[in-house]
Amino acid sequence: MKTISIFSDFDSTISILDVGDELFKKYGDFDKHYNNFITGLYDIRELNKQLCNSLNNNLTFAEITSFAIKQEIDPFFIKFISFCNNNNINFTIVSDGYDAYIKPILQHYQLDYLPLFCNSLIRKNNFFEPHFYGAVEGCKCTTASCKRNVVINNSNNEDIIIYIGDGHTDFCGAEHSDVIFAKLRLATYCNKNKIPHHPYKTFFDIYRILDSRIKNNNLHQRHQAKMKRKLAFQIE
Fold first, then answer.
1. φ, ψ at 220 (rounded to 5°)
2. In the chain, N or C terminus with fewer CB closer than 10 Å?
3. pLDDT less than 70: residues of the chain
4. Which SS3 state, helix, strand or coil, does residue 194 take?
5. How far apart are CA 64 and CA 137, in angstroms?
6. Contact partners, residue 234, CB within 8 Å, separation at least 6
7. Where along the chain do its domains lie?
């Protein structure tokens, strides 16, 4: 059996709500800046910069932590991680969100041992600013940081790469993966671009499908994804 490496989005995938959006709605000016992104006035990185700058100057990291640990995660996620651990499946979180709320949530559920790639929220001159962990010139996808590079740099050539996500920040990472679990905008994108994927609602759906495919030895590298990964290496 080849090594299975799973890469999963966080907001609206592991968490029930998009915690980042909820944070900026509560303490910042989400609607104004998101509308500017939708209309093309901002690119994704500018959107993140403006959202972070809009956060209340008096907001503390302790308050963000308190807000974060009240957020719910998928009810089957912890059992799914146990399933991964029992089957020697690598599981990595790759998010275009922020450490200030993701880390407290993982700690709250005793899951902070999971590998995590996400942006950092820093405070500078009384303003909040983003630090993008994987921004690269070679990738032009709609993420502030490059999820694609996390996927290809944290797996081996022969791994079966599985991607789990829901939104526009997952498009590029999913395209470079062998097996895709998609919902919402990511599922729409996969349908539009004829990318094979499994629709899902919860991590129980993912467990059920993945467990069956493992038992039936029905996990293989997707040729198109493998070629995309090879090309990405050459470009970078």
1. -140, 155
2. N
3. 1, 135-140, 235-236
4. coil
5. 31
6. none
7. 4-16+72-235
State the sign of the Cα–Cα–Cα–Cα dihedral 129, 132, 138, 143. Answer: negative
Please spell the DSSP secondary structure of 44-81, one letter per residue: HHHHHHHHHHTS-TT--HHHHHHHHTTS-B-TTHHHHH
Q: What is the pLDDT of residues 95-125, one digit of tens each?
A: 999 999 999 999 999 999 999 999 999 999 8
**DSSP tag of 15:** B
Give me the amino acid identity at 146. Answer: C
* Mean of per-residue pLDDT scores for the chain: 94
Tokens of 190: 């996969």
Instruction: Output the six-digit token pair for 102.
Output: 């993701």
User: Whole-prediction pTM value?
Assistant: 0.95
Q: How far apart are CA 117 and CA 144, in angstroms?
A: 12
Q: Among 66, 58, 62, 56, which Cα is nearest to 28's?
A: 56
64 close to 105: Cβ distance less than 8 angstroms: no
* Half-sphere exposure at residue 179, Cβ-oriented, CA atoms within 13 angstroms: 18
Nearest-angstrom CA–CA distance, 57 and 64: 13
Q: How far apart are CA 73 and CA 66, in angstroms?
A: 15
Q: Is 143 helix (H, G, I), strand (E, B) or coil?
A: coil
**Which class would CATH give 4-16+72-235?**
alpha beta
